[in-house]
# Entry
Amino acid sequence: MHVEFERSLQDHRDEVYLLIRRLRESDKTFFLRSDLQRILQEFCESESGRYLAGTPIYRLLGAVQEAFFRDSAIYLDVRWHVAQRSFWCVHSEEMSSREISLNEFLRVKEQIAAPHLEEMPTLEIDMGPFERGFPRLRDSRSIGQGVEFLNRYLCNRLFQDMDSGGQRLFKFLQLHRLSGQQLMLNSSIADLEALRTALQNADEFLSRQPQDLSWKDISTEMAHLGFESGWGKSVARVRETMRFLSEILEAPGPDSVARFLGRIPMILNIAILSPHGYFGQSGVLGKPDTGGQVVYILDQVRALEREMYEFFDNQGLDVEPQILVLTRLIPNAEGTTCNEPVEPIVGTRNARILRIPFRNQKGEIIDEWISRFHVWPYLERFAMECSREMIAAFGGRPDFIIGNYSDGNLVASLLAHRQGVTQCNIAHALEKSKYLYSDLYWRDHEGEHNFACQYTADLISMNTADFIITSTYQEIAGTEESVGQYESYQAFSMPGLYRVVYGIDVFDPKFNIVSPGADTSVFFPYSRSEHRPKELVSMVDDLIHGDSDSPVRGRLEDRSKPILLAMSRLDYVKNVSGLLQWFAADERLQQEANLVIVGGQLDPAASTDQEEADQIRQIHALMDEANLDNRVRWIPMQSDKRLVGEIYRCVADTRGAFIQPALFEAFGLTVIEAMSSGLPTFATCYGGPLETIEDGISGFHIDPNDGAASAARIAAFLERCREEPGCWDDVSHAGLQRVAAHYTWKLYANRLLKLARIYGFWKYFTKIDRQENRRYLEMFYSLMYRPLAQHGPSQTD
Ligand code: UDP
Ligand code: LCN
# Structure
């Protein structure tokens, strides 16, 4: 490859020289892909650059993700394909190129960002050596389907040496207990050979029984044959489960491994960690740091509980699954229930929220809400208290621990390690993708965002997790054009702190895509009029058009126009102020529609969050400047879910659209809520919506960095719908179908529990091999994370 580029570079010396000069002339320190693409494109359209297009050197430059100059050389990070990179240095005077190592690339980058540090030796974090011998996906298209790959691998590994694989499986079944109860096998089956015989005897016995006979009716005979409960509720199901096991012991295949492991009752008690924000069931949404994650977890809990009851029932076990959501107790709860230590979760039989306070070093309780960027000093203590409370509540350790966001994942990692439990991570959103160069210029964020601590916590918990679930593919590995959120942890630098040369590998089979859904009892199609309570419809009408009791701004003069709805927390990244600017600048769009914004509060002084207060001021200023009060209605955040569901539907009644203009959206629950309501949706092309929506079919993508084009696209759609009403219905239907096929909580819960069982087995299987990795991470935690969390970066200098 190198020879090809070198030759191409020599053939086009003059063009490349001129191009590099152009780059130098713009006084940027670092060039992003978008900058380079633009300059390269302009250059190739110019007289001097016209022969460059299509050459190997053009291809190399076109794949550059990042570039910078050092002396007379330009350094390039070339991302050939999803998650595949190489690094190059091109000398602009000698006109020679050389492929360089990742370390060299990062080292030079650090020297540019922090020249005062000169060439100080730095700590390199390298998880690579621990991964040797562990399976790894090869094809980028398989990223996020870890469990399917693992099943194939497990099947080969388990049975490479049939006897030892079978022995391990036998040992696992023999030791398997749930809440102290022995399941599957009893001690009368002494070894693998005995298990084979017992399976044959059992099948012989079962074949003579009525197939719908229940486990209770056969349990005594089965116990004599060596089998305890857990195989199935009826003779037919028990035989089927046993057949899956016999298949594995005879001629193992990945499907039988998956099918059999998917039948073992392993998960009864689940702990879910979500420390930051206001975690409650009402009156919390839209408060600082409190949004989709809370909605996601509450819906997840209900779906998991339903699925677990169904599973245990099918396996013939009469047990009560328990789910605990562990979060922070906030004494000054701002009118929410976040000061209550225990809260049963509505719509479940047994699930509860358990709140545990943050304490300072003296052990005193912290009374106020704390931003997610400042929770780090409290987490270790919080984890210890969680551990005690959890054991008391479950009457033992849980079977499965799920972390949420960086703080919850770190606590989950501490707890799972302490208790030897399977750990699953859910990031929701990794901050690194939201704040450009927040790693390289990490010191500028200390005090406000404390990213050094957060990224260290992320690295630890990503590596300790038994598996990681993501809502989309791009969350892991991005797209051909953009780097994935997890991919950005593969290699990066925080100058003066450490350099990561192998942080996490997106080809690791621990990654699995499991997308969330929307609560269908709340977010259902606008056309189901019989389910829409009249009071809610009139409350929403009042919010949108009336002299509402709550403070609102603006009054829609022309009620006949369709409504464009935007609803989100008022974070900078949500870009609601951006949308207002596009609307203000586009006459045609104003002709076609009114705009309704739901989010935040109207008085900036009432906000405890600086970023939100800034956005509130900006929205007021924009409405003032452009005189938008007769076509824009701004309604403060709405925390009643049912009302929110009705807002989408009332907007659909006007044949309007939902607009999600975020600069970046990790997943975007509002997008699937709107689609579930039958409301055509325009959502950002950066992040999850790129996958949830098929552009032009089940909705549309818009570029938040090109407001004029986005506004024009929305206006054109509304214009077309006015002329051809069927066009609106088509998009509305396609959105509903898309959600029903891919984004439901039923699909989610079923898959997550399957993963928990299979990775639980995998954990048992690889326990010994993982010890070195664990020790390295413990050291990283103690020597890097803990001092950072407690004292800030000065302690690590
Ligand atoms: N939401 C709400 N009221 C509001 C604003 C948002 O109930 O005023 C809900 C919205 O329905 C969705 C969640 O908050 O369920 C936001 O989730 P999303 O994933 O879109 O964004 P996040 O806030 O997590 O970044
Ligand atoms: C956090 C986000 O930023 C959203 O994009 C997600 O939808 C939400 O969490 C739930 O995962």
